[in-house]
Amino acid sequence: MSGKEMDFKHSKNLTKWVRYILCVQIVLAIISIGSNFLEYQLLTDLQNGAYVSQIEAFDDAESSDRRQQILNVINIIVFIISGLLILIWIYRANYNSHQLGAKDMDFTPGWSIGYFFIPILALWKPYLAMKEIWQTSHNPNNWALEQAGTILRVWWFFWIVSNIVAQIGFRVSLEPKELQDFINSNIVMQISDLLTIPLAASTLILISSIYKAQYAALKAKQTNEDN
Q1: Taking a C-beta distance cutoff of 8 angstroms, is the pair 86, 159 a contact?
Q2: Is the Cα dihedral 76, 47, 49, 58 positive or negative?
Q3: Residue range 20-31: mean pLDDT, rounded
Q4: Is 142 exposed, middle or buried (0-12, 13-18, 19+ CB in 10 A)?
Q5: Number of CB atoms found within 10 A of residue 115's CB
Q6: Which of 157, 158, 192, 195 has the alpha carbon at shortest distance from 172?
Q7: Residues 100-109: what's their mean pLDDT?
Q8: What is the C-alpha to C-alpha distance for residues 124 and 132, in angstroms, rounded to an integer?
Q9: How large a percentage of the chain has pLDDT more than 70?
Q10: Which of 107, 121, 158, 218 could be cross-linked to 199 through a Cys-Cys bond (beta carbons 3.0 to 4.6 Å apart)?
Q11: By the 8 A CB rule, do 35 and 67 touch?
Q12: Least trusted range by pLDDT, from 126-135, 153-162, 167-176, 186-195
């Protein structure tokens, strides 16, 4: 067994857990959409004066707040876990691309995730890093000639749009707390939850494709070395 082969870090279990957490994100997004819609109905009813009893309105509002708070906590936990797992996965995928024999790569494992945290550069550098991982995974020896898959562009589109909507949602939440402000914030959150579904789905497809490509490349490398 060659040194390079020994250095290849198998990611079967890591990929499995990333897939699981992405599926959880999709399910949680669907639940959040339903919960946010219920909150939207409550807010519009309050705005339109549909409640004849203040006690009933207060009870419904308190119940809605409690439900939303629970979902928010779960969403934050899942977001942190999924973010960490995906970053670890990207780091390892880049590392494995180097081990598969890809030469003259522009990104190191560290920078393949580091650019996510640098303002301005985060708008395109992570995409280029993932594109390079895709190319080197599908064609390690001639990766510069490899065309990036469409799913890569789909993933990045939803990543950018989701982040823009999240920023809008944050700014809206800082506005004076009139009832209409709560309604506006709710609408933005519903859009954000909707975007989470295609983002998670495209991420799932993307990592699965790269994972399969890297193991196919590893098998081919082993066969060539044995011969």
Answers
A1: no
A2: positive
A3: 98
A4: exposed
A5: 18
A6: 192
A7: 95
A8: 13
A9: 96
A10: 158
A11: yes
A12: 167-176
Q: What percent of the chain has a predicted confidence (pLDDT) above 90?
A: 85
> Rounded to an integer, what distance in angstroms lies between the CA atom of residue 226 and that of residue 174?
62
Tokens 């946010």 belong to 36
CA angle 119, 123, 127 (to 5 degrees): 130
pLDDT at 2 over 50: no
**Helix axes 54-99 and 12-48, enclosed angle (nearest 10):** 160
For 166, the token pair is 């999240």
| Model pTM score | 0.92
Residue 220, CA distances (Å) to 5, 123, 148, 203, 212 in order: 11, 35, 21, 26, 12
Residue 1 pLDDT grade (very low, low, confident, very high; cuts 50, 70, 90) = very low
Where does residue 49 fall: left (phi above 0), alpha (psi -120 to 50 degrees), or beta otherwise? left
Cβ partners under 8 Å of residue 35, min gap 6: 67, 68, 71
Cα gap 4→100, rounded to integer Å:
7
Per residue in 46-76, pLDDT tens?
Answer: 999 888 889 999 999 999 999 999 999 999 9
CA nearest neighbour of 146 among 108, 90, 100: 100
Q: How is the chain split into domains, by residue range?
A: 10-226
What's the pLDDT at 227? Answer: 63
